[in-house]
Amino acid sequence: METHHYSMLALLQSHATTHNDQLTHLLPVRDITYRRLWSRIERGSARLQGEWDVRPGDLVAYVGSGHPDAIVLYFSLLRIGASLLPLEALPADAVQRTLDAHRPVLAVHDDGVLFDAVPARRLEDLLALWSHHDPVVVDDDMTRRALWLPDGAGQWQASSLFELCAALPPAPRSGFVNGRIFSADILCDVVLPSLRDAQLMRFAATEAVERTKS
Prior knowledge:
Number of strands: 10
Oligomer: single chain
Strand order of the largest sheet: 4-3-5-6
Low-confidence stretches: 210-214
Number of domains: 1
Strand content: 15-25%
Order of helices and strands: HEEHEHEHEEHEEHEHEH
Distance between the termini: 39 Å
Radius of gyration: 16 Å
CATH topology: Rossmann fold
Shape: globular
CATH architecture: 3-Layer(aba) Sandwich
């Protein structure tokens, strides 16, 4: 399947109908189907814009440990024309330095940390309740560089969804995400091809929570 010839956002919206009851991943308290995934992306877009005041061109940071809802955050930001800076599994001082350097308008986190001079929201609050706002969705431009990824030399480079999808493998190389979501290998070898093919993914971050409950 040649994902780079069409929009991943449009594909996920289509999956909500054509693969509606297939599982995307599991959370400790609910199963996330492709229909529910798209519903959560819509809810995230509405809350980010209507309640958290994120605007086109804004940069939002994710600070956490590979929670699958960070994927919802990314696609929600794409829909409203904003960008994501994922800061996963970094020590607190490195997080703060990166926030100081890039100055996002908001930091969304899943581990309860506090940040200096950056407004913060919990990732779970992005999707906790339905948002009644009607977001203004931007034109779907896969070439817009809306994801900042580390380049291996201590620098951050903005990538477009077009670039990320252009060389995906013909099938996901694994169905398991252990640790960071937004590393180039996990994102392009596991996450994006799994979403493309409507496959199930397993996330270490949420499976660890499930084990503590049993």
